[in-house]
Amino acid sequence: MTYRNPAPTVDIIIAMIDRPHIPIVLIERRNLPHGWAIPGGFVDYGESLENAARREAKEETGLEVELISQFHFYSDPNRDRRQHTISAVFLAEAKGEPKADDDAKNLGLFHAWEMPTPLCFDHEQILRDYWRYRLYGIRPSLS
Q: What residue stretches are annotated with the Nudix hydrolase domain (predicted)?
């Protein structure tokens, strides 16, 4: 019998704590699917989720991040049309000048009132959950 398992991924919501109103970093993807996304990517074999989050943040934004907490897991089988993935979303903080690199063709700093479009994958839902948490202290439910 052949087993097919979802691929583990990480997404990192990076708050720029040295900027007014503490914006977050989003990248514009170089590869399909095109659009804006939370920095992140696939976990390498033998790599912890935390190390994958730090690596992906560095590769895509050039930032050394401090992981603050694990925010939530997102596992809808349709969240990524390329394959079934499960994402561990981390909250992180950084200072400095982010720059688009690796899979990112562009990068921007955004607040809740100015999200870019289109957003890839299920990142609209993730960011809606994040801003609800950030502004009102309400974490996403498990439903």
A: 8-133
